[in-house]
Amino acid sequence: MAEKAKVYFADFRAPSWRENLPQKLARLMMTAGFGNIDMDGKYVAIKMHFGEPGNLAYLRPNWAKAVVDLVKAQGGKPYLTDCNTLYVGGRKNALDHIESAYVNGFTPYSTGCHILIGDGLKGHDEVLVPVEGGEYVKEAKIGRAVMDADVFVTLTHFKGHEQTGMGGCLKNIGMGCGSRAGKMEMHNAGKPFVHQEDCIGCGACVKICAHDAPHITDRRASIDQDKCVGCGRCLAVCPKDAVQSNNDEAPAILNKKIAEYSKAVVDGRPCFHVSLVRDISPCCDCHGENDAPITPDVGMFASFDPVALDQACADAVNAQPALPGSVLFDEGYDCTCGDNLTAAHTNTDWRVCLEHAEKLGLGTREYELVEI
User: Fold this and answer.
1) Are 244 and 252 in contact (CB under 8 A)?
2) Burial 180-206 (b: 16+ CB within 10 A, else e)
3) Which among 43, 56, 94, 234 is least surrounded, fewest beta carbons within 10 Å?
4) What are the counts of helices (DSSP H) followed by strands (DSSP E) for the chain?
């Protein structure tokens, strides 16, 4: 039987002036072994989600500063990072993405470090990373600024998710670190297409394509699916967002691809993972809104093992009572099933990602919870 991974836990109580919550997070991380990572003079990527404009469930910048300060205390060179989004919104290119982060409070003055968007200005500054044992992905398309880091740290807002069942550490790593083309690979069974009504026939997609897939006919572009390789470059350059993604991959395969992308990111370098289980919205922070939390806040979790961390967070959420007034009490939902994450999105199974990640050697679902 595999040895259990240690997952460290602290609640959100701070009843004394002697320790506030960011300080408590720092103590949790150091107790979990964060101080044993050699960071002296090394670049340290802190992967997190800055929140889509309009969403208020994302983690406050204060939490990021607590992590940044620990990295600096150990001689590291920290930066906050995330990759651009595939969908149209406030984070689809680096300029909009950084502006959205600033609006949501993530500035060098509030967090103590700079932001580097992982896959560059238009979302195609990527590195092809082999996935050992990958069933669906042989080479993951990961943002270059993510792969350039010597040390990789995650700071995750744990929540529900409409496609994967839960938005945890592995989702933050796998989907979050994929370039725009990488996100398309995870989300799609097929390839991009052109929404004809939005196309102005500018030819930007034709110029960027190395495979002669897009063509202009009657001032409207179309994509030859036989020639298209799914690189996603056309999505990045279209000025009208007429090139779109199907997002038609089955939830189970999407979860497995996320696990494989996560393996590409973490293999071969020191990694550490933190998840905060609070404001547990039923859907991703990529939404421009956030619904009421489905359960009460739980606490802070930290581990070297991302699989064990996600399992511990999921177990903790499912052990909580469903909050009245949340989606779990809407007609058609079962708030008494004992699995709050699945109850919020019955067409998903969050366990698939963890099972596949364990199979790939990313960690173990067996854990020992150590409370500080």
Assistant:
1) no
2) bbbbbbbbbeebbbbeeeebeebebbb
3) 56
4) 13, 16
One-letter amino acid for residue 90 of the chain:
G
In tens, the pLDDT along 218-248 reads 999 999 988 987 777 787 688 888 998 776 6
Structure tokens at 320: 């909580």
**How many residues belong to the chain?**
372
> Which residues lie below 8 Å from residue 81, measured CB to CB, with a gap of 6+?
45, 46, 47, 48, 115, 116, 117, 118, 143, 145, 146, 149
| DSSP at 332 | T
User: 82 is written with which tokens?
Assistant: 């995330």
Residue 6 bridge partners (DSSP): 368
CB 64 within 8 A of CB 29: no
Q: How confident is the model at residue 217 (pLDDT cuts 50, 70, 90)?
A: very high
Local structure of residue 193 (DSSP, 8 states): E
CA 344/CA 139 separation, integer angstroms: 33
**Residue 346, number of CB atoms within 10 A of its CB:** 13
Query: What is the per-residue pLDDT for 50?
Result: 98
Give the CA diameter of the chain: 70
- The answer to whether 160 touches 345, Cβ cutoff 8 Å, is yes
Query: Which residue matches tokens 């651009």?
Result: 84
Q: Are strands 193-194 and 243-244 parallel, antiparallel or unpaired?
A: antiparallel
Look at residue 132 and give its three-state secondary structure: coil
Q: Measure the CA dihedral 223/225/230/235, to 10°.
A: 20
pLDDT > 80? residue 190: no
pLDDT tens-digit profile of 1-50?
Answer: 569 999 999 999 999 999 999 999 999 999 999 999 999 999 999 999 99
For the chain, how big is the Rg over CA atoms in Å?
Answer: 20
The secondary structure of residue 302, as a DSSP letter, is E
Q: Please compute the mean of the pLDDT values over residues 248-269 and round it to a whole number.
A: 94
Alpha helices, DSSP H, located in 203-332? 204-208, 233-237, 251-266, 306-318
CA-to-CA separations, 55 to 157, 181, 232, 286, 341, in angstroms, rounded: 13, 25, 26, 8, 20
Question: 277: which 2 tokens?
Answer: 């289980």
The model carries a pTM of 0.90
Both tokens of 113, joined, read 């470090």
